[in-house]
Write a structure and sequence with these properties.
With 575 residues, the protein is an alpha/beta fold. The protein has a 22-stranded mixed β-sheet that branches. A hairpin with a 5-residue loop joins β9 and β10. The two termini are 64 Å apart.
């Protein structure tokens, strides 16, 4: 390393000082620059052990010609290697070929031993062998390689005719490198080397067809929370509207393969690409040119797991009231107004309500979104076979097979087979009962007035809810049956009795099915029910809050902050 310059040398400066400074700068750069990584090993070389038989031929050539190059077999064409597994296999085959041909060559090259019975006989002259070209063809027949053994005992040196004859005998007639055949005899290192003598054309297999979706197959239902913690439930955008004739996805056709040619003048057949299976579902069709999946009607695009379907959407421009009557639809429903008291909305798909749901019944086969909220007046029943997203819930019964997301829940009966999350907005649960299979998460539970609020975790809340509704309906039907039985005999009485008895029979069959399913979950009659599990997370819970997990019950008697409740050793514990 260069010495640092003194104060005077820096002050008065000189050319030598400048040189020293330049040296110091170069030295510093050399120290900063990272060292280049060592080159990766080349796996295309054939490793030949020292005791291999070909080395005896090299020694023989050295004795007769004065020098001979060491054997070097490198299987690489135009800088490209075969795939590793294929390369290893071909190198092993090449090694066997060299071992076999070198052994035969050495057997011919060694002088014959004089018979011991005739010691006076003159020794026979050593064998004379011309140079020998050997052709090696890999399994794929896309290349032909040549390696040459030198002459022995004054035999003829390598010439083009020898290489051509070897290629003809090996059946190599296509893609021959004539320049190599002309120049190889004059190369200094022509022996014990591997050269590419011919190259074929690999078949170009066709590409399979593919599908390019213009609509997502899985719609992410995300709600955005603003800086005030408020959720805009009108911007979930889970509905993918499409007009008739619109393209749902592009169908990329397969391509045809291009045949190749082997060095042995054989056609290598290429495979054509396979056509992609179009995800064609209801209300869709393939375009005339076969390159697109097109909607045949306007509606909502949904991927069902295998196909795209267009589900027709029913749009209600205003309220669901006497102007529309009850709604019962097979697809999706979008209500731009309110669902007024006393009306029913049922849909096989998703339901979106831009306004308020009053004391009514709303049942969705998909997701249910209520942008403003539910004012149930203790009469509303809200049901969804998937998830529910609602601004607030007040005095209603709620059933969700999936998760439930709300800003506020007041005096409601909630049943969810997933997670009940009340964290956005006020994030408050006040009064009523919340039953969730997995988890309840809220900012505030209960109130300062110690309003009784129950959180029930674990089990199958939705089935419990259905069972309660069924029992309630049965009681009402039985009361109605008793009332009709008191009426005087008439054809109308017989019709009413027939209808009531059929409904009672159906409901009792449902009850029996519930009981059988309950027995299966227990593992059979006499088996204990699986223990319930679940978790409650909250920022603050007021006295009057009751937490139930299975048979374990914990009632809070004082304010509790930032805690989690779960079942530990058969008891509900706060941590």
């Amino acid at each position: 390393m260069a010495l640092k310059r003194s104060f005077f040398s820096r002050l008065f400066g000189s050319s030598s000082a400048q040189e020293e400074t330049a040296e110091e700068s170069a030295e510093e750069q050399r120290q900063v620059l990272p060292e280049e990584p060592p080159p990766l090993p080349d796996n295309s070389f054939l490793e030949i052990p020292p005791d291999h038989i070909i080395n005896r031929l090299v020694s023989l050539r050295t004795e007769q010609a004065g020098s001979a190059p060491p054997p070097e077999f490198h299987m690489m064409a135009d800088g490209e290697l075969l795939p590793r597994a294929e390369l290893d296999r071909e190198l092993e085959r090449l090694k066997r070929s060299i071992t076999t041909t070198a052994g035969k060559r050495l057997e011919k090259a060694l002088p014959r031993v004089r018979p011991a019975a005739d010691p006076e006989a003159e020794p026979e002259p050593g064998p004379v062998l011309d140079a020998q070209a050997v052709v090696f063809i890999p399994y794929n027949q896309l290349t032909a390689w040549v390696y040459v053994y030198p002459p022995v005992g004054g035999g003829a040196e390598l010439n083009r005719g020898m290489i051509s004859q070897a290629l003809d005998e090996a059946g190599v007639h296509y893609g021959v490198d004539n320049a190599l055949l002309d120049g190889l005899p004059d190369k200094e290192a022509r022996y014990f080397r591997l050269y590419l003598a011919a190259s074929g054309i690999a078949p170009a297999h066709g590409k399979d067809g593919s599908i390019v979706d213009l609509f997502p197959r899985k719609v992410e239902r995300e709600y955005k929370v603003d800086e005030k913690g408020q959720v805009d439930y009108t911007t979930l955008n889970i509905v993918q509207n499409v007009e008739a004739g619109a393209v749902i996805c592009r169908i990329i056709p397969p391509t045809e393969g291009v045949d190749g040619h082997s060095v042995t003048d054989q056609v290598l057949t290429a495979k054509n690409g396979k056509a992609a299976s179009a995800p064609r579902g209801r209300n869709t069709t393939i375009s005339e040119d076969g390159t697109a999946l097109v909607a045949t009607r306007a509606g909502h695009v949904e991927f069902t797991g295998r196909t795209f379907e267009i589900k027709p959407m029913l749009e209600i421009g205003g309220n669901v009231d006497f102007s529309t009557g009850n709604i019962n639809f097979l697809g999706d429903v979008h209500i731009h107004g309110d669902v007024c008291s006393g009306f029913t909305v049922r849909a096989m798909g998703s339901i979106t309500v831009d306004g308020v749901v009053e004391a009514s019944s709303v049942e969705a086969g998909g997701d249910l979104i209520v942008a403003k909220g539910v004012q149930g007046n203790e009469q509303a029943v809200i049901r969804s076979q998937r998830n529910i997203f609602v601004k607030y819930l007040e005095n209603c019964s709620v059933y969700a097979r999936g998760n439930l997301q709300a800003d506020c829940i007041i005096n409601c009966e909630v049943y969810s087979d997933g997670v009940v999350q009340v964290r956005s907005g006020r994030g408050t649960i006040i009064g009523g009962r919340i039953c969730a299979a997995r988890e309840v998460s809220a900012s505030t539970i209960g109130s300062k007035s110690e309003l009784f609020t129950t959180i029930n975790l674990g089990g199958s809340p939705c089935e419990d809810f259905e069972r309660e509704l069924l029992e309630k309906e049965l009681k009402e039907l039985m009361a109605e049956l008793d009332r009709v039985m008191l009426q005087p005999e008439s054809p109308d009485k017989l019709r009413q009795l027939s209808t009531l008895r059929m409904k009672i029979s159906v409901n009792r069959n449902k009850q029996n099915l519930f009981e059988k399913n309950a027995e299966k979950e227990k593992g059979g009659e006499g088996q204990e029910e699986a223990p319930k599990t679940g978790r409650l997370q909250f920022s603050i819970a007021y006295p009057g809050t009751e937490i139930v997990i299975g048979d374990a019950v914990l009632r809070l008697n004082h304010e509790t902050w930032e805690s989690t409740a779960s079942l530990v050793d058969g008891e509900v514990r706060i941590s």
